[in-house]
Write a structure and sequence with these properties.
By secondary structure, this protein is α+β, with helices and mostly antiparallel strands. The relative contact order is 0.15. It has one domain. The strands form two sheets. It has a three-stranded antiparallel beta sheet with strand order 1-4-5. The chain has a two-stranded antiparallel ribbon with strand order 2-3. The chain has seven helices and five strands. The protein starts with a helix and ends with a strand. Strand 2 and strand 3 form a beta hairpin.
Length: 182
Amino acid sequence: MFAPVKMIRRAIGRFCKAREGSTAIEFGFVAVPFFMLVIGVAEVSMVGFMQTTLDQAVDRRAREIRTGQAQENGVTYDEIQDAICADVNFLLNVDCEANLFLDVRTFPSFVDAADNLANPIVNGQLNPAGFGFQPGASSEIVVVRAYYRWHVMTPMFQAIFANAGNGDRLLVSTMMFRNEPF
């Protein structure tokens, strides 16, 4: 055999028998999937936390509409939006001005509300053109919908978590109720 071939075989044999640094190499194989899993869990947790926070904020403001406090105090769309934003921003600093959209409407019956609520997502984008603010009068049926565009922070998870265009996840909170007599 040629001397260079023997040297290459010996070098490969020594490399295969060597145990120094094997932990670093093994960690290198495991590190990428491990960190992807950790980042994925963090991303899912943030989305879940934001969804829960949005639900609670919408519930709180819908109660003001349901009991007539919002109507009696002349609360506007902007004031309701600011209140929901304040509830959401207690821990997370989110951009409500550009990403939070509200739709508050009255309907003659619950069936009409269910049948006539159009899906505001057109071609993967939120279209708030038909949104309004009608908190209703005493004993009217009201639907409060809040939409928040959450930007998925981890680029490699945008394809998995995004449900709207531009890699965003659209969080939705809806309350349907009959206003109390006030």
